[in-house]
Write a structure and sequence with these properties.
GO molecular function: 15-oxoprostaglandin 13-reductase [NAD(P)+] activity; 2-alkenal reductase [NAD(P)H] activity
EC number: 1.3.1.48, 1.3.1.74
Radius of gyration: 22 Å
Helix content: 10-25%
Subcellular location: Cytoplasm
Pfam families: ADH_N_2, ADH_zinc_N
Number of helices: 9
Subunit structure: Monomer or homodimer.
């Protein structure tokens, strides 16, 4: 404020903490790949808002995307639930909550172009962090992978790996809602127990099973109509031969490959693809963005009805973003990994 102008508006100086990619990851990420910085934000102009992060998401996609969509020194990519604390945009009044693709930052000034308001009827007993999980991008990923890519039908058998993660746990539950048999794999006995609580028909710990092939055959002797792929690598090489004729495979992720410094080699699945006439399709959730509002309302309804249960792995403190991210890549989370500011 200028000393001689009593009518001048008092300006609140806001400092944003940000986590930047100090250097591209080589192999598994490490602490020295990240740097915590502080920047002073400008006053919001006409049409702009000032956001304060409440919950931030850490997701597997950040690992491969960082290589192709980021430069060294960029703020880490990602989504957050944020509160509008200053507004010059009537669409986003002070006190409203939004989902923002602001990356790993505590405060953001933006024009609102890519913000999404939380659903107007968000239940009071539902944590807003679910807008980053079951009622957000992971939930939509599960829904579109099953409905649009696999075109799953009642009575079919589904295989999903990384089944206790943010996407996989929703995949299995939606498939059960749709009247399917669901087989899941996870990396700990505790995760296996959780998935059985969710109603999965058969679950196994891929780290302790003597034979992945035998585990898949035991769970579904007649094979699989649909396979929701989150892992890739050797798991995929064993799973694809277990598909039924005309089976459909939705390729959502390949977390077993993300930290490789050298490409993995086969076995290769081309003959199985040909003789079984399989359909295998990779997808990104943004393809069906035009359906998001209706789809989020369906996910919300299932949560309200108790048909779609959730678990969150919450880490407190913005300073713990890198640790939460690396922990998620190592499978420490059951359900959605979230950082609470």
């Amino acid at each position: 404020m200028e000393n001689g102008d009593s009518s001048a508006k008092q300006r609140t100086v806001v400092q944003a903490k940000t986590w930047v990619l100090r250097q591209h990851f080589e192999g598994f990420p490490k602490d020295s790949d990240f740097e915590l910085r502080v920047e002073q934000l400008p006053e919001p102009k006409d049409g702009e808002v000032l956001l304060e992060a409440v919950f931030l998401s850490v997701d597997p996609y950040m690992r491969p995307y960082s290589r192709v969509r980021m430069k060294e020194g960029d703020v880490m990519i990602g989504t957050q639930v944020a509160k509008v604390i200053q507004s010059n945009n009537s669409s986003y009044p002070v006190g409203s909550y939004v989902v923002a693709r602001s990356g790993w930052r505590t405060h953001t000034v933006c024009d609102g172009a890519e913000l999404v308001r939380l659903l107007s009827d968000w239940p009071k007993d539902c944590p807003m962090s679910l807008a980053l999980g079951s009622i957000g991008m992971p939930g939509l990923t599960a829904l579109y992978g099953l409905e649009e890519v696999c075109q799953i039908k009642p009575g079919e058998t589904l295989l999903v790996n990384a089944a206790a993660g943010a996407v996989g746990s929703v995949v299995g539950q939606i498939a059960k809602i749709k009247g399917c048999k669901v087989v899941g794999s996870a990396g700990s006995d505790a995760k296996v127990a959780y998935l059985k609580e969710l109603g999965f028909d058969h679950v196994f710990n891929y780290k302790t099973t003597a034979s992945l092939e035998d585990a898949l055959k035991t769970a579904a002797p007649d094979g699989y109509d649909c396979y929701f792929e989150n892992v890739g690598g050797p798991f995929s090489s064993v799973a694809i031969p277990q598909m039924k004729a005309f089976g459909r495979i939705a390729v959502c992720g390949g977390i077993s490959l993300y930290n490789d410094t050298a490409p993995q080699n086969g076995p290769y699945v081309h003959l199985h693809m040909i003789f079984k006439q399989l359909k295998m399709e990779g997808f990104l959730v943004g393809r069906w963005e035009h359906k998001n509002e209706e789809s989020l309302r369906r996910l919300m309804a299932w949560v309200k009805e108790g048909k779609l249960k959730y678990k969150e792995h919450v880490t407190t403190g913005f300073e713990n973003m890198p640790a939460s991210f690396m922990g998620m890549l190592q499978g420490e989370n059951t359900g959605k990994a979230i950082v609470k500011v």
